[in-house]
Design brief:
Layout lengths: L10 E4 L2 E3 L36 E2 L4 H7 L13 E9 L5 H11 L3 E10 L10 E3 L2 H13 L7 E4 L5 H17 L4 E4 L4 E2 L2 E2 L5 H12 L2 E2 L3 H8 L6 H14 L3 E4 L12 E12 L4 E11 L8 H15 L4 H27 L18 H5 L8 E2 L1
Parallel strand pairs: 4-5, 4-7, 7-8, 8-11, 11-12
Antiparallel strand pairs: 1-2, 3-13, 5-6, 9-10, 12-13, 13-14, 14-15
Helix pairs in contact: 2-8, 3-4, 4-5, 6-7, 8-9
Length: 384
């Protein structure tokens, strides 16, 4: 039985096999046996932000989104900004759609969810039960949406999957939605592996390279995934910038390498993430903004952080369509607040010298509502 939507280190597929999981910013310290990534923080209410500098528009028609971002969730015409999210679902806990939906709604987005799996809980627990949605079943659900003429979306969001036919069906849906709304933005977390090893079938790699990435607008690979997609080894910051440029050439305007093995100037207790965004000025010339983030490592393991990161990057790039620095700072800030609150709660409930259980380490999402809406900055991104 496969699990679609989460990636923390120690997600069990069966009793004899464990999976790397938690794709992002819940960083684990070097002495930990796990390897997550951890986020940071940034301040200033989204409602106080002004539109980005005049004369610059994103290639994906972000001028409309920029105006919308000044409101609490409705664009000037009164229409909703709507996201189609195809990810996993759990009854208890936060992964996939459960990690993405509430934070997006808090920030004013309407979210329509298709659950790629429906499980009792994530697979890091001793037991789990549930069902996996097939490509044909995904098609049936989408057809129902289309027959009612409800297939107009501003964003589409996808994460972890292990099935080639399901991923290809996702691409078909993206292409059809972009036909209905050419300004739709597709945010894709191309979850394939970490630390030099793939934990999805190798057959997914050519699908990502040839079909998914070309239709994506925003992608969030880790270093290993960026290497897989580009065929380039990343050993230096220059290598990472070149890899992001290659990914731009494949399709996406915005690329964030969410974690890397690159050395931080701040020491080995920090992880390096990098980002690049292409915008087009009013005169038609292109402009790139590249950033680097040195992120403090956190000695803990979480599930669903990668899904939360992708959702928050969607939200904050919407509110800052031409300012990747601000969008990434706020995204990472939300992550850090949620993670710290979760750590504190888990340690308190578990008691002294006891390792928290999977249930105790479920993300404290509802309790972090205020931080999701208005994250305070702790680390700033550096412009390259």
């Amino acid at each position: 039985m496969n699990y679609i939507g989460i990636r923390p280190e120690c997600l069990k597929i069966n009793p004899s096999h464990t999976l790397s999981a938690g794709k992002w910013f819940a960083l684990v310290s070097a002495r930990s046996s796990f390897s997550f990534r951890s986020p940071l923080l940034l301040a200033r209410s989204v409602y106080e932000e002004q539109p980005e500098r005049a004369g610059v528009v994103n290639r994906r028609k972000t001028d409309v989104r920029r105006v919308w971002s000044q409101s609490l969730g409705a664009n000037p015409s009164g229409m909703d900004c709507r996201v189609l999210s195809i990810q996993s679902h759990v009854v208890r806990g936060y992964v996939g759609n459960k990690s993405a939906t509430f934070p997006l709604q808090v920030l004013g987005f309407e979210v329509d969810s298709i659950n790629s799996v429906q499980f009792s809980n994530h697979t890091g627990y001793e037991h789990w039960k549930g069902q996996v949605l097939t490509a044909d079943e995904l098609h049936v659900l989408y057809e129902g949406i289309k027959l009612n003429k409800l297939n107009h979306y501003d964003y589409m969001l996808t994460g972890y999957t292990r099935d080639v036919s399901f991923l290809e069906m996702v691409v078909d849906i993206v292409e059809e939605l972009k036909g209905a709304n050419p300004s739709l933005v597709y945010v894709c977390d191309p979850v394939m592996g970490d630390n030099g090893a793939m934990y999805v079938p190798e057959a997914l790699l050519p699908v990502y390279k040839e079909k998914v990435v070309p239709v994506a607008d925003i992608i969030t690979p880790n270093q290993f995934e960026a290497e897989l997609l580009t065929g380039r080894k990343i050993s230096t910051e220059k290598d990472a910038v070149e890899a992001m440029d290659l990914l731009h050439e494949m399709g996406p305007d915005t690329v964030v390498i969410t974690s890397s093995d690159l050395l931080s100037s701040l020491g080995d207790q920090y992880l390096v993430a990098l980002g690049s965004q292409i915008t087009v000025k009013a005169d038609g010339t292109k402009e790139k903004q590249r950033i680097r983030m040195d992120i403090p490592r956190v000695d803990a393991v979480f599930v669903g952080t990668g899904d939360l990161f992708a959702a928050m990057l969607l939200a904050w790039t919407h509110h800052h369509p031409n300012n990747l620095k601000a969008a990434c700072e706020k995204t990472v800030s939300v992550m850090q607040h949620v993670i710290k609150r979760t750590i504190n709660y888990a340690k308190e409930v578990a008691g002294p010298d006891r390792r928290p259980s999977p249930a105790q380490l479920e993300l404290r999402m509802v309790q972090s509502k205020g931080d999701i809406e208005d994250p305070a900055i702790t680390v700033e991104a550096i412009l390259l």
